[in-house]
Amino acid sequence: MNNRKRLSILLVISSLVGLLIIFNFQTNFLNAADNLYEQIKRFMEVFNIVKQYYVEDVESENLVTNAIEGMLEGLDPHSVYIEAEKLKQIDERFKGHYYGIGIEFIIKNKILTVVSPIVGSPSDALGIRPHDQIIKIEGESAYGITEQEVFDKLRGPKGSKVTVTIRRPGLEEPFDVTITRDKIPIYSVMATFMIDNETGYIYLGRFAKTTVNELEQSLVELESQGMKKLILDLRGNSGGYLDQAVLISDKFIDGRKKIVYTKGRRAETNDVYYSSAENTHPRFPLIILIDNGSASASEIVAGAVQDWDRGLIVGETSFGKGLVQNQIPLKDGSALRLTTARYYTPSGRLIQRPYENGIMDYYEQGYDDVDPNAEEDSTANKPIYYTDSGRKVYGGGGITPDVTIKSKKITKFTSNLISNRVFFDFASQYANKRPELSSSFNEFYKKFHIDNNILSQFRKYITEKEIEMKEEDFVKDLEFIKLLIKSELARNIWDSKAYYQIRMSGDYQVRNAMEHFQEAANIASIALN
């Protein structure tokens, strides 16, 4: 244990002892209902017994950390203690950038493998390709490297250099590349494109510091291409910064309207957030896609848009994370993320769903394959609220969509192919054999099809990977399998944006959502051209 950690533990223990001494002289306080003095004595008694008699030596730091985590776990699912090292990673994820070489990667069979270079990054500029294997870093073997070690070795100050040895499919010999590290953006907008001549699509993956700026760029880009209606995809978006959720909502809701409000036990946790008075973009029909993985900031946006009749919410009931956390830094660099209030939509709906049955049930139910609110009578016992125009919407936790469209379920066989990166690997090999495919994305998008010859090669590849072939499941998921092969080919030949563009062209929920733009226009009182 380093000196800093020892000091932290001594500070914690001395603070507890100090509290005991102080509390001995504060008899009025000791008579308080929860008898804090007696509870701290009880904790210290157990702490000392464990330290002296447990079968193995236990670090004091671990005991205190576990005690803190257990205390918070008894409050709610989102009050947590975050250790210093983990806090750095979380902060980086949402601040919008880091410094490094710019690759999306996986560790496959203990080998660091490039999924794709990040557009505009040093790796992209030097021609790093999907499925390149980084086998050495600064001359040392990267075999068996961990994800944390990848971050430690490939990230670094702007302008610093790192030499990696790459093994590329199709080339006999590995080769070295020296990459100069630079600022790498962490994008919130994962994909922006036109689905057809009038329909724009934006996939928003998180709410970070740069999210509203990215969304603004996407809207301007799509409007320049003739967008008349928009699908904003928030599926799987677990949230992020509250201010970004308010600013994103403000892009669609004008007139100084309430976006979200918070209520807590203390007066300073009560707040109300409004849209600005001006409208910076045309009022086009809007559909927001949500699912069981849409949470927190995603639910703030969906709830505000629904309550003000600005757009149509489509998909599956959202997760139901409506607790507000205040992050309080601690002296050792760690932090306490403590729930201090609850989120409410403009109509008064509490976004948070119940969690009284325990954390395991809470998370399992939230991400269950079966949406518990998607059946015909799902709203029977839910509290009713009303939108600005008088439409019924439902409380009880999460955002219930206006139009329920369940995602198509795939078989365990196909799920196993995905988890084993079979589509990714096959596409890489096939793309290397067909360099002519890279001539035109539009040509590939419109005219390239996964025919029987490609499927035959794919079946053979599954067998080579020693995965049991289940013919019935293969036939059942055939259209989805074709879509994934073509999507991964697009990622290998172009980039992640091309992957999403192909993937969404065959997405069941997206295709069906397209049929509801008239309803989206009607509730927003917009004429659909």
Question: What does this entry look like structurally?
Answer:
The protein is α+β, with helices and mostly antiparallel strands and 529 residues long. It folds into 4 domains: 3-73, no CATH class; 97-185, Pdz3 Domain, CATH 2.30.42; 189-407, 2-enoyl-CoA Hydratase, Chain A, domain 1 (Alpha-Beta Complex), CATH 3.90.226.10; 412-511, no CATH class. Helices cover 40% and strands 20% of the residues. It is built from 20 helices and 21 strands. Strands 3, 4, 5, 6, 7 and 8 form a 6-stranded antiparallel β-sheet that branches. Strands 10-11-12-15-16-21 form a 6-stranded mixed β-sheet. Strands 1, 13, 14, 17 and 18 form a 5-stranded antiparallel β-sheet that branches. Helix 1 (3-24) crosses helix 3 (36-53) and helix 13 crosses helix 17. The protein is globular and about 75 Å long. The termini are far apart.
Which tags fit this structure?
globular; alpha+beta; 4 domains; 20% strand; 529 residues; 20 helices
CATH topology of the largest domain: 2-enoyl-CoA Hydratase, Chain A, domain 1
Approximately how much beta-strand content do the residues carry? 15-25%
Average the pLDDT over all residues and give the rounded result. Answer: 87
- Class from helix and strand fractions: alpha+beta
What is the helix fraction of residues, given as a range? 25-40%
> How many angstroms separate the termini?
68 Å
> Would you identify the CATH H-level superfamily of the largest domain?
2-enoyl-CoA Hydratase, Chain A, domain 1
